[in-house]
Amino acid sequence: MSTHTAARRTRYLQFGVPAAVLGTLSSAVAGVPAAAAATTAVPIERPQSSPLRVLPAEAAPASYTVQPGDTVSSIATRFSLRTVDVLSWNALTWRSVIYPGQTLALTGAAASAAPAAPAPPAPAAAAMHVVVAGDTVFGIAQKHGTTVDAVLAANGLTRASVIFPGQALAVSGSPAAAPAPTAAPAPAPAPAPAPAPAGARTHAVVAGDTLFGIAKKYGTSTAALLALNGLGSDAIIYPGQSIAVAAAPAPAAPAATTAPAQSSAALDAEQAANAALIVRVGRQLGVSDRAIAIALATAMVESSLRNLPWGDRDSLGLFQQRPSTGWGTPEQALDADRSTRVFFGGAGDPNGQATRGLLDIPGWETMRFTDAAQAVQISAYPERYGQWEAQAYQWLAQHG
């Protein structure tokens, strides 16, 4: 045995390795050719990842309390529901905002139930909270150790109500006996926000704007803004929206009509090609001329009959369908043929039961033209579709 070998064995023995094991290792190493020892790699056994376990969808309860981070789409997906149905059952639109603590109906029966009768007047000792800029019903409820539903019930409010600085809210017990403040009475809610009147002075809404702040900036009142813009107390404003802040110098009284004023437009090559595509898909599906006309008018309102790669939030394509609410992937929403079939819906809907197309709306044939389109799109401006009814039939004649 060489001196170096003895020294190495001594070192290993000092670390507690049995001599017999060292001998065996030495023999094994000595028996392997030098070239093989240099090139032979010892395979590393890696743990195999377990297959993903797909959890079954939960059964939908009658109602659901919104949690932080929830969206209407995520709630619908969790309970195997369609986003559009959850919106309809709760009188929401695609622009509506939900908040933690809010209760959503997850069945049509729950949504159609009559609202509970208001509670009797509260004793004078009920605690009150005076609303300041930045307050929300949710924040007020948390501050006073109560719930959103309790604050709404105590003040005769609904989930669509808008609170404003200076308003006094009861935060304990039943509704306060004191009469509602008269500082900013809201007019009767309008069916939907209308465009700013022609010739009126306007304000472009930016992030952080409120109706109260806009009214203060232009020396007017919240009630005046609501009336001037045809808004209800439940209206939601959003960046980019144009708000009228002063009436036109000599506004003409609107004529009472049963049908919306009709719009018309001459189509360029791109628009005409998309109109022809919508007609062609409608003919392939065997839908009626009325259904095709509704699709043409809807595409005109939503995208000006252009297959847009952008839109409000994540809206895309001819019909501004939103991937985040179940209308398909961004690529699918930009596929004009597919998005048209999804709008029509029915048995051949590429989205299956995930979304609801025109043919899936019960009684759509007997609805007003604009109401049938709105039942699919759930827009903040439902009357705009009817403005293109006459023109849509002309396009159908030209490209059909």
Features:
two-stranded antiparallel ribbon, Membrane-bound Lytic Murein Transglycosylase D, Chain A, 4 domains, single chain
Describe the protein:
Helix content is 36%, strand content 5%. It has 400 residues and is mainly alpha-helical. The protein folds into 4 domains: 63-112, Membrane-bound Lytic Murein Transglycosylase D, Chain A, CATH 3.10.350.10; 121-183, LysM domain (Membrane-bound Lytic Murein Transglycosylase D, Chain A); 201-246, Roll (Membrane-bound Lytic Murein Transglycosylase D, Chain A), CATH 3.10.350; 269-399. The strands form 3 sheets. Strands 1-2 form a two-stranded antiparallel sheet. Helix 7 (137-143) crosses helix 8 (148-154), helix 9 (211-217) packs across helix 10 (222-228) and helix 11 runs antiparallel to helix 12.
Percent range for helical residues?
Answer: 25-40%
Shape descriptor reads globular
Rg from Cα: 33 Å
Number of domains: 4
Mean residue pLDDT: 77
Summed up, the helix count is 16
Briefly characterize the structure.
By secondary structure, the protein is mainly alpha-helical. It has 16 helices and six strands. The strands form three sheets. It has a two-stranded antiparallel sheet. Strands 3-4 form a two-stranded antiparallel sheet. It has a two-stranded antiparallel ribbon with strand order 5-6.
Topology, element by element:
Blueprint: H1 3-14, H2 19-30, H3 34-39, E1 63-65, H4 72-78, H5 83-89, E2 103-105, H6 108-112, E3 128-130, H7 137-143, H8 148-154, E4 168-170, E5 201-204, H9 211-217, H10 222-228, E6 242-246, H11 269-285, H12 289-303, H13 330-333, H14 336-344, H15 369-377, H16 389-399
Antiparallel strand pairs: 1-2, 3-4, 5-6
Helix pairs in contact: 7-8, 9-10, 11-12, 11-14, 12-15, 12-16
